[in-house]
């Protein structure tokens, strides 16, 4: 095993002197800055013995690799800007980066951006979280901001900008548990009946039976479906990305030359609009077995779409070959897809529900039908058991059913009560 590189005299020399203020000062060479110049740390003590001990402690931390690099002790705002602009873009998807940037710029930088990293304390963060709650922010939002900040400061620790991460110690507010409210089986039947006469009717059968995320459902291409095997691959998602300015910056590099504030209004706008992107994790990229009735419904939908393409003619965007496109074959706008869901709920005469509740409904249906939790997690693309545990009402039903069955096995001939599943409204 190779030992630590031996430092040159120039890299280990420390200078001490008594200043005009009467205090003892030292400049300790701690290493080399990014520009190649020596990184010399200044310390000051009232007595020479105290200074000698402080210098020796610094030199030990340097020689053992435990020194926290403090070339400039940046502010929290400066570090977050570096992290968001230079570190994250190569590691996360655009939507994740956009969300992180928005949360930091809105909720952290205006209040805590001027605080030096070395001065940041867990109590500082906890006080800020309390102010956010008092100003009307939800506990879920505060928790999300805390997670992003913790990630950014973890990177500062990894790069020796911080000795420890105060966000790891700080306690964000507890998120009130929200019980999932799935649609009932009768509501699902009414929704599918109302959708049957509308364009892309199979879109809603996919939502309620497979529980795909909205972007995943809109990103399905016909080549992802194997009609012979009755399977569907989830590999892509439709995503709306914010337009960026394509013009140059003026006024010190802060104002766009076009004069518009929003990138969407810039004549040279770029990198925005509705895009087809890869799913974000390996768990999201999955293969799902389809219920036989859904396979047949998708066959009918493919035939109807082929007829629609003939009517539209050359205006149809055929290269994407999407299963649920708009009238020109382009990716469906998620906002328009959401409005269609709300219109179908109204036509079906059922209670108002989020589009994401269709995903909850599919998960609950699978659980109460006796599908084991690990299989449900694979179908839904979940990576954490905590997500599945939100469906405790369905799991409780399974526990009661298990107790009923063991009772019937060990005490045959005794009466056991029937289980009424929650979706049998």
Automatic annotation (TrEMBL):
Signal sequence residues:
none
Q: Which GO terms describe its molecular function?
A: DNA binding
Protein's UniProt keywords contain DNA-binding: yes
CDD domains, from UniProt? Answer: INT_ICEBs1_C_like (cd01189)
Which BP terms in the Gene Ontology apply to this protein? DNA integration; DNA recombination
Residues forming the Core-binding (CB) domain are 74-157
Q: Keywords for this entry?
A: DNA integration, DNA recombination, DNA-binding
Region of interest (Disordered), residue spans: 1-23
Tyr recombinase domain segment(s): 178-405
This protein's record includes keyword Isomerase: no
Protein name stated in the entry: Site-specific recombinase XerD
Q: Which organism is it from?
A: Pedococcus dokdonensis
